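ok here's the first one, seq then struct tokens
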Amino acid sequence: MQLTILGGGGFRVPLVYGALLGDRAEGRVTDIVLHDLDAGRLDAVARVLAEQAAGVAGAPAVTATTDLDEALRGADFVFSAIRVGGLEGRAADERVALAEGVLGQETVGAGGIAYGLRTVPVAVDIARRVARLAPDAWVINFTNPAGLVTEAMSRHLGNRVIGICDSPVGLGRRVARVLGGDPDEAFIDYVGLNHLGWLRGLRIAGRDELPRLLADPELLGSFEEGRLFGVDWLRSLGAIPNEYLHYYYFNREAVAAYQAAEQTRGAFLRDQQARFYEALGHPGAPALKTWDATRAEREATYMAENREAAGAGERAEEDLGSGGYEKVAVALMRAIARDERATLILNVRNGATLAALDADAVIEVPCSVDANGAHPMAVGPLPGHATGLVCSVKAVEREVLAAADSGSRATAVKAFALHPLVDSVAVARRLVEGYREAHPGLAYLRG
């Protein structure tokens, strides 16, 4: 079975390869094709994979190419993990937004819209090529903003594109651990959009244990989200929000923390990964060791500004492992390839799951997965405050898709102006001009 990884020179690829090593079951991945526009990055990542595979019998064979069509031909699964504009683009997204006093995070607020505007046209081109060159392939989308990009691709691939994120899984595992349950056995009642969802229940042996957590202030304040949001706010909500909702519930504090930081997250990752690829430009550098040290630093500093603003302290030791994308992606791929039923939280078309949204809206919910793909499970309705936020952000996503499709600058302004974290039409207009100046790829926005 062939797995093609788009963005194959990216930093997360060794996580995926590591998760596939040692698989001997029927229907396993035997060939991996890495695609990237940067041959040097491909070479660096291929060296890491070679060291991972050393001494492992039957490790998937790895080839690399800068030709997209060549990479797609023969694919059974396509992992899309591209970053249009690179980390320099992410740093620019943050810089332009913060100059206007609004959030520039890569998936939330102004930064997420800017990233979406330059990513959607590329993602749509990929979707069309997959439909032409590998029509039976399943696309698993890692590319952020994950929900928005998955919805854009679904217009050309239907249900054969599925978006993934590790945030809901990480949240569920933390809650299960603090409740004394086995994270692998717990069912997570979670619903929303990507980076905009809430854990409303966690069933262990058929019993919802979330009320017990909410009733115990000491227990509730003992894990990441309890420290980040505060016990009183979680009890008021009656649910545990995805960590990215900190940008909404504590927006002023988050923006102030990002403005005060020595360096934005995007700029930090840009410089860190530049050092990584430069180090691997030397033939004698220990590729796997260098990658692992870089990964550890990356995980330890994740959402550092938010934790500082909340006084949440350092990340817990058990949260410093890999993010979990690779585990979700490989579990999804195996469930489809082998018809092994699994329950995973995924980004899929809504259908009739959430009455407040139309059938084609991509949402993030528990899904039952089998050989026919991912099927959203029935969930209870969201409370009014959450429904309002979900509908508002989904409306913004639709304006982003419309702007990317039409090239309309006015529609792009509308997308920014309607976002809950952008507080002025005048600011929205300046953001569009600032991003057009920072990103040549947004020159398509006109009129």
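and now the second one, same deal
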Amino acid sequence: MEVRGARTVGVRTCLEVAMSAQPDHAPVPPAPIAPTAAAQLLAQLRVSARAERWVPAFEQDWSRALEDSRHSYSLTPLHDVVRAWLARLDAAPAVDAFLASGRDDSDGVGLADALDGRR
């Protein structure tokens, strides 16, 4: 058998096999969040009908996540805040339509409970 560099002719090396293997159970990573996503989100919140309540709540969530990130050296808490608030903004028109319909909402589920079920 002739050897050339790190491979053998006609046989794959262990490194090639290991690098080409993909686990069947690998989780799908969440979509990346742009570095400017928080600023863009805050701008959207400021012009929304719920700005009076949502802007202070977002700023509080962001402050907590920033502190968590400083301690954990991870951006995950910041990404989680942006994803949760984007979900709130996306759901707002449907919530408004539901509330305007006059349907009974006494059996509702909290947003945090609903988001935890998707992870």
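notes on #2: The two ends are 50 Å apart (CA to CA). The chain has a mean pLDDT of 79.
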